[in-house]
Amino acid sequence: MLRPLPSRLQTRWAALCGVIAGLAGIGVSDLAARLVTPAGSPLAAVGSVIIDLLPAGMVNFGKDFLGGADKPVLLVIIAVGVLALCAFGGVAELRRKGRGTAVFALVAAIGLVGVALGSGTDVKAYVPTLVGMLLAAILLSSLLTRLRQWHPARVLPGPDDASDPSRRRFLVATALWGGAAAVAAVGGRLLVGAANRISDARANLRLPTPTTPAPAVPAGADLGIADLSPYITPNDDFYRIDTALQVPVIDPEKWSITVTGMVEEEVTMTFDELLAEPLEEHVTTLTCVSNEIGGNLVGNARWLGFPIRELLARARPQAGADMVLSTSEDGFTASTPLDVLQDTGRACLLAVGMNGEPLPLEHGFPVRMVVPGLYGYVSATKWVVELKVTTFAEDAGYWTPLGWSERGPIKLASRIDVPGSSVGAGTVAVAGVAWAQHTGIGQVEVQVDDGPWARAELAEVTGPDTWRQWRYAWDATPGDHRLTVRATDAKGELQVADEAPPAPDGATGYHSVRVTVR
Ligand SMILES: Nc1nc2c(c(=O)[nH]1)N[C@H]1C(S)=C(S)[C@@H](COP(=O)(O)O)O[C@H]1N2
Ligand SMILES: [Mo]
Questions:
Q1: What is the CA(153)–ligand 2 centre distance, in A?
Q2: Which GO biological process categories is it annotated with (predicted)?
Q3: Do residues 334 and 398 make contact, with C-beta atoms less than 8 angstroms apart?
Q4: Domain check: are 92 and 164 in the same one?
Q5: Which atom of ligand 1 is the closest one to the Cα of 289?
Q6: Which residues have CB less than 5 Å away from ligand 2 (the ion)?
Q7: What is the DSSP string of 339-368?
């Protein structure tokens, strides 16, 4: 049977379906990027790549010529190009099922390359493009199925074509999806645009030099063993725990923190005011209460910030208060003992910097709390906006009613990082980290199978608030072995051997690994 050639009218409808599907795909990928990571917006990523590829002269010309609108204009140009490709995809799909999907796959591939060149390592960043492309392909195929059922390709429209139910079904579906796609595209762009504006504000931020710098990291803090956690954890590798579905994006110009509750005077501080204070830098290891024995919800960074005790002092806490309930912009709260935050010997910071950079958005930009010695859930509030001076009797942090302890001092722990599960016989480096924040590590011991505990060599540290690397030279003999580690803190307290799960106040037990020696 001869297939009728698509009429010009049908071809135009197919092109429109391609545009609608493409628009929906772009919109959904932006919305997904806002949920997953701003770096995952294919449109923005391709835009950045083009800016990087353009000769500097042209970029400057764009800036001069268009003022601040150079980026939006570029994004519109890219969007128009993408939608033209999608229109072609719609026509291709009309000619033969599956061809439109191929065109959309090509468009998605361009987006994925843009994301890859932009954010690189983060696998999550590819999800928005893939989700958007999948939706676009499904939508296109469904709209075109309706278009084919309508059959405008008939030589001449029948007399009652206007009342043809398949025609109506196609037009209604196209109108509804077209509207939804436009809303998704505009909404997605606004959300991603806001996130990108804050990312730019962060990138352009110059942090003040600390009045009190952290002690230099001694060369001997890093034993330099492959696969051993570095003493300072790079920001990109730092573990992340959030209750919020999406990372809050806060304009530092609009941020402020207020001390409320049982105080003589409420005190508010803006971001500029905070930066104008004398700031100090301190190296502190954060740990999550959910960390299992041997787990990796722990990381060490150099934090720059203003002492929380100074801000509290200005508000003058009243007698009887024993807790500070810190609140995040996203509603998360943490209960921290007031005396810990007032302790002059403890570097509890309203932190603005992490390893020499403004806080990454995921780690609390523009301001978070860092408290040496307490698990993050009762101390390390990210995106912090309020400190309410109160009592444990009166208030509770986010996790306490959910079964976690109202107080969370970090438990002494140690971990084996190397070797892996299989090594050659001979002298093998066994190494890892141990932590007892605010007390310090005094000794680490390693046990091979059921043998005696042998002392490991300890690396240097900046102070008691960080983890400590350790290593032990193991004379490995062929066969299957078990290595176990335990630590003693600087006060002589031995790590608890009894195994306990993370809930309600932190896991205990010794970490051990199995190694096959060849
Ligand atoms: N706003 C907010 N702050 C938060 C949390 C959170 O879910 N929301 N999680 C806390 C927990 S449980 C931990 S362990 C630390 C983790 O900080 P990180 O994500 O920067 O590693 O942040 C704390 N601060
Ligand atoms: Mo945590």
A1: 62
A2: sulfur compound metabolic process
A3: yes
A4: yes
A5: 14
A6: 241, 288, 376-377
A7: HHHH-TTS--EEEEEETTEEPPGGGTTT-E
Confidence of residue 2 (pLDDT cuts 50, 70, 90): very low
The confidence band for 155, taking pLDDT boundaries of 50, 70 and 90, is: very low
Using the 8-state DSSP alphabet, how is residue 12 labeled? H
Ligand 2 centroid vs 166 CA: distance in angstroms?
Answer: 56
**Which ligand lies nearest the alpha carbon of 241?**
1
Task: For 476-486, write each residue's pLDDT tens digit.
Answer: 999 999 999 99
What is the number of structural domains in the chain? 3
Both 301 and 348 in a single domain? yes
Each residue's pLDDT tens digit, 422-446 = 999 999 999 999 999 999 999 999 9
Burial of 346 (0-12, 13-18, 19+ CB in 10 A): buried
- Looking at the CA of residue 330, tell me the nearest atom of ligand 1: 1
Closest residue by Cα to atom 20, ligand 1, is 363
Q: Using CA positions, which residue lies closest to atom 21 of ligand 1?
A: 240
Domain holding 355, by residue range, is 219-402
Say which residues have a Cβ less than 8 Å from residue 294's Cβ, sequence separation at least 6.
415, 416, 511, 513
Write down the pLDDT at residue 120: 59
